[in-house]
Amino acid sequence: MPEIVHTITAAENDAGQRLDRFLTAQLPDMSRSRLQALIGQGCVSSQGAVIDDAACKVKPQQQFTLVIPETVPSYILPQDIALDIIYEDEHLLVINKPAGLTVHPAPGHADNTLVNALLAHCGESLSGIGGVARPGIVHRIDKDTSGLLVVAKHDSAHTHLSAQLAERTLKRTYLAVVWGDLKQKSGSISGNIGRSTSNRQKMVVVKSGGKPATTHYRVVEPFGIASLVECNLETGRTHQIRVHLTHVSHPLVGDQTYGQSTQSRLNATPMKALPAATRQALLSFERQALHAKSLGLIHPATGKSMQFSCDLPSDMLQLIDALRA
Predict the structure, then answer these.
(1) Predicted TM-score of the model (pTM)
(2) In the chain, which residue ranges form alpha helices assigned H by DSSP?
(3) Confidence check: pLDDT of 130 > 80
(4) Tens digits of per-residue pLDDT, 231-284?
(5) 206, 238 in Cβ contact below 8 A?
(6) Half-sphere exposure (CA, 13 Å, Cβ side) for 41?
(7) What is the C-alpha radius of gyration for the chain, rounded to an integer number of angstroms?
(8) Quick one: which H or E segment has residue 50?
(9) Domains and CATH numbers, the chain
(10) Do 285 and 253 contact (CB within 8 A), yes or no?
(11) Summary mean pLDDT of the chain
């Protein structure tokens, strides 16, 4: 189904209602949970500003625009795509996802995703509790981020692992290459994250609203013009590491969404003295330099604490070697 746009205006007697309740009354063919999900995804706006809080109170004569995205087919085709499996048993898999692989189907990415590969690997047993478009997926990482994620093989495992994610006992550590030399070599970045009012695809640190988010960081190796930084997530918001490090003026190298272009940075006077090989390595790195290097969880069946890790991919290793030069 193609994208659908609804424009709805609140009447005087609608004032004070929660946004999700108001929209449910206006659109009886849609469930409240579906509308809450759309609100959380930034699909509702008023006077050009995105509203992602379902509890927001409606004002009289306030006009809302609801954009229902193009739907993803309910049937997902299994595809024989190679998987780098770090661990597997009858309950779960831990995957080392390569950069460039989308986790689950979405508009514009109907196939060739991790889910397509998992359906081919696991068959009918794969958990569907995450929804038809993302069976088995407990958490995700961005298409252009590499590294570890855990997949549930059945509903009970999915419920258990999802609870760990919600309770913040599922531990994730990332390595990032960021622009600049951080003055504080370790610390925490806190700030509520919400959708940009000017671009629904971007997240930003907001002064009000949004969802609480905290990222703990430690500089592993400074390079002068850039730094290798370890990040531990206390929360898991969309694009959290990318948004938080951009907020403190140290965006990720190669980040096409949140960072200034590499070419613009290299045009700055101090950068012109960089060796040609280093300049070329920076220019050719066209994804965010972010890798999910370790994952800690409690096994949903045995209760055993488990730790997994994986090495940096070759493109980030080459970038780091060039920066060391």
Answers:
(1) 0.79
(2) 19-26, 32-40, 114-122, 155-167, 240-247, 262-266, 276-284, 314-324
(3) no
(4) 999 988 989 999 999 999 999 999 989 988 899 888 887 788 889 999 999 999
(5) no
(6) 12
(7) 21
(8) strand 49-50
(9) 4-68 (3.10.290.10), 85-166+305-311 (3.30.2350.10), 174-292+317-324 (3.30.2350.10)
(10) yes
(11) 90
Cβ atoms of residues 170 and 196 within 8 Å: no
Confidence band for 74, pLDDT divided at 50, 70 and 90: low
Give me the count of residues in the chain: 325
CB 118 within 8 A of CB 151: yes
* Active-site residue, 20 included: no
As given in the structure block, the two tokens for residue 167 are 């309770």
Q: Which of 198, 210, 259 is nearest to 238 (CA)?
A: 210
Q: Which of 20, 53, 142, 144 is catalytic?
A: 142
Contacts of 247 (CB under 8 A, 6+ apart): 189, 191, 204, 205
- CA–CA separation, 64 and 34 (whole Å): 17
Measured distance CA(303)–CA(306) in Å, rounded: 9
- Residue 240 to residue 198: CA distance in whole angstroms: 18
Q: Answer whether residue 132 shows pLDDT above 70.
A: no
